[in-house]
């Protein structure tokens, strides 16, 4: 116990364990704008097309089953994913969103004094899970908003238990070639878990989206995670999953609470997996509008990071009147909610989820206005 730590055992009230009250709470994308009814939400990378009608039907059909506990093994989703992605079903781990998978990995591997290594602009949920275990977070600088493998490796020491990387990344949207991920893996000690967060993998044009699974299949320290929240449009139902080495799955499963994926979520997830048409429409929309937005916003003099995800990260000038904070407020006042990412160490950037055609055009027109003021 350090000198600053209150003596938890003699305090006049229950005091949380060290580190808890220093954790910065997760900030979700804004869902409301003052004075605007029904704003367009482009702040949380949700699927702008909604979700598969088949998934919605399956969800509705679950209404008759609310008195029942769900299957603790999430068997129906397990089998559907194993078949669709060609993975061993016993190596899959399901969570209340992939957020829970991250948290379970942290709880399984991190103890106070250990550390977790991530890129400087890493996804906030990873660090929350790690901090809750008393671990130190080590941020590796990024190179021009791209994950830098050498910088990650420099942060690794004998107390490193986990390395998290998302590819494509959030909030930058950028990606690195898979050869870089392989190089990272090869240089890591075998005792370190490499977590490859593939929340946006399906949106990366032209990438073989199975490379991460191919790597994980033969290694004892690689975890790949995916989610139903983005491409499948089921963020409300909270279903995420990981593909883990078998012995790691068995370890993590000991602390996973038994009924962590509910029945409506399981039914809708299976139906969503069967709707290739919805999945393809989601990809097509992003592939149509991502280059357009990148080009149009670039044409306004804004700095758009090359994106492989369903959003773009846009850099604004520091000039008063034209800053990222002001752009976010301006768009909100016009009914378009986007995400300021100052809490990700990017105070001059705004993250914008790719919307429907009319949303994308409106955002560009509004920002043209904003920049021309
Ligand atoms: C959205 C997102 C997820 C998904 O989280 P869920 O808990 O599955 O909804 C995971 N990782 C990153 C980087 C994300 O942006």
Explain this structure to me?
This protein is of the alpha/beta class and about 375 residues long. The protein folds into two domains: about 5-50 and about 275-370, Aspartate Aminotransferase, domain 1 (Alpha-Beta Complex); about 55-275, Aspartate Aminotransferase, domain 2. The protein is built from twelve helices and 13 strands. The strands form three sheets. A seven-stranded mixed sheet has the order 2-8-7-6-5-3-4, with helices on both faces. A four-stranded antiparallel sheet has the order 9-10-13-12, covered by helices on one side. Strands 1-11 form a two-stranded parallel sheet. α4 links the parallel β3 and β4 (about 135-140). α2 (about 75-85) runs parallel beside α9 (about 265-275) and α5 runs parallel beside α6. The longest helix has 24 residues, at about 275-300. The model has no long low-confidence stretch (mean pLDDT about 95). Pyridoxal-5'-phosphate binds near residues 45 and 235.
Q: Which descriptors apply to this entry?
A:
2 domains, 373 residues, alpha/beta, globular, binds pyridoxal-5'-phosphate, single chain, Aspartate Aminotransferase, domain 2, four-stranded antiparallel β-sheet, Aspartate Aminotransferase, domain 1, seven-stranded mixed β-sheet, 12 helices, 16% strand
């Amino acid at each position: 116990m350090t000198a600053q730590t209150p003596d938890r055992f003699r305090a006049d009230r229950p005091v949380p364990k060290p580190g808890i009250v220093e954790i910065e709470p997760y900030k979700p994308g804004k869902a409301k704008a003052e004075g605007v009814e029904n704003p367009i939400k482009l702040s949380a990378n949700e699927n702008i097309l909604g979700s598969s009608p088949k998934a919605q039907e399956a969800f509705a059909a679950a209404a008759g089953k609310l008195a029942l506990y769900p299957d603790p093994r999430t068997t129906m989703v397990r089998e559907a994913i194993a078949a669709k992605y060609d993975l061993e079903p016993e190596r899959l781990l399901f969570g209340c969103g992939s957020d829970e998978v991250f948290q379970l990995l942290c709880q399984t591997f991190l103890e106070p004094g250990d550390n977790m290594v991530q890129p400087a602009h890493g996804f906030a949920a990873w660090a929350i899970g790690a901090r809750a275990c008393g671990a130190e977070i080590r941020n590796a600088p990024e190179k021009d908003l791209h994950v830098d493998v050498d910088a990650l490796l420099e942060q690794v020491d004998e107390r490193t238990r986990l390395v998290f990387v998302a590819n494509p990344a959030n909030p930058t949207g950028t990606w690195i070639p898979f050869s870089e991920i392989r190089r990272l893996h090869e240089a890591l000690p075998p005792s370190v878990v490499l977590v490859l967060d593939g929340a946006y993998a399906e949106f990366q044009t032209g990438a073989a989206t199975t490379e991460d699974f191919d790597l994980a299949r033969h290694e004892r320290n690689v975890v790949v995670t995916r989610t139903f929240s983005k491409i499948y449009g089921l963020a409300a139902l909270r279903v995420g999953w990981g593909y883990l080495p078998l012995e790691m799955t068995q370890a993590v499963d000991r602390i996973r609470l038994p009924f962590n994926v509910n029945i409506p979520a399981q039914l809708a997830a299976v139906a969503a997996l069967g709707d290739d048409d919805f999945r393809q429409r989601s990809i097509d929309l992003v592939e149509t509008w991502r280059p357009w937005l990148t080009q149009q916003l670039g044409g306004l003099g804004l700095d758009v990071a090359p994106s492989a995800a369903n959003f773009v990260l846009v850099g604004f000038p520091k000039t008063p009147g034209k800053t990222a904070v002001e752009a976010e407020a301006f768009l909100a006042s016009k009914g378009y909610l986007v995400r300021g990412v100052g809490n990700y160490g990017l105070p001059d950037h705004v993250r914008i989820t790719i919307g429907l055609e009319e949303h994308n055009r409106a955002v560009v027109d509004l920002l043209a206005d904003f920049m021309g003021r």
